Amino acid sequence: MTLTARATSLSNPPLSGNIHADRSSSEALAVWGGNHVVTYENTFKEIEDAKPEIAVLAIGATEQHSTHLPIGTDYLMGGYLSRKVAEALDAYLLPVLPFSNSQEHQDFFGTVWLQPTTLRQVVMDVCRALKHHGIRKVLVMECHGGNWILKPTIREINLNDPEMMVILAGPGTVTAKLQGAKIELHCTTAETALMMHVFPELVKELPEDFQPEVGREYLDYVGMRAVAPTGVWGTPNAATPESGRESVEKWVKPVVDYARETFARLEEIRRKADKK
């Protein structure tokens, strides 16, 4: 199957993307961890025999990304980045959730969204199903920056079910460190650069950079189009394929490190609590 065919098939999301991006994957895995990942491409018996301790669930979105990126940008990059994280953690990679909370983009044609309560229930049901199979560690990767319901949802799962360890992380966890003080929210330098690197054939002519004069709370007041008519809130023209390649390396490793460290600390905390 060609790269274009894979990239445009939402029923079978691409796991690799740009072949040049994959060229360094084996080298990266030598640093990041193992490669005994099991995915939705495996049979139930293969997953059962692998006995994964961790599952990775990426939350994507189907929403406008201006005139230069596809509406499946968060979905496509969620598949790419979560694959690398799952490989490093020897985890069970779940399919990317293609819809989430995107109602602020509802005035842009093609955007599809879930209600926050729906997303909450989906995440809770997925975790419940994983627990049924003995997988009690779940890494939820936030690959779309508007799902505020995830934090209280994950808090609720952990506090109500002490057997579960569900943590939230993703590219957004380290975006602020990469961008410094500059605030970018949508169709950003980093987002555009990643697409240039991994799915260059899907990147069209770049729109003008745009920084609204209001804060992000206006997305809740009037929606994105009223404050950012082209859908851009940032500087996509500063993006380059090379900076996209560098971002993959900078984003994946902190997420992997965070997951390992957090799961280890949670286990230690619970061991101490059990002794009391």
What are the key terms here?
276 residues, alpha/beta, 12 helices, 5 strands
What is the secondary structure topology, with strand pairs?
Blueprint: H1 3-7, H2 19-22, H3 25-32, E1 38-39, H4 44-50, E2 54-59, H5 73-89, E3 92-93, H6 116-132, E4 137-142, H7 150-160, E5 165-169, H8 171-179, H9 189-198, H10 218-221, H11 224-227, H12 241-275
Parallel strand pairs: 1-3, 2-3, 2-4, 4-5
Helix pairs in contact: 5-12, 6-7, 8-12, 9-12
Domains (count): 1
| CATH overall fold name | Rossmann fold
CATH hierarchy class name: Alpha Beta
Q: Overall mean pLDDT score? A: 84
Can you put this structure into words, describing what you see?
This protein has twelve helices and five strands. It has 276 residues and is an alpha/beta fold. It has one domain: Creatininase (Rossmann fold, 3-Layer(aba) Sandwich), CATH 3.40.50.10310. Strands 1-3-2-4-5 form a five-stranded parallel beta sheet, with helices on both faces. Helix 8 packs across helix 12 and helix 9 packs across helix 12. It is globular. The N terminus is likely disordered.
Short description, anyone?
With 276 residues, the protein is an alpha/beta fold. The chain has helices at 3-7, 19-22, 25-32, 44-50, 73-89, 116-132, 150-160, 171-179, 189-198, 218-221, 224-227, 241-275; strands at 38-39, 54-59, 92-93, 137-142, 165-169.
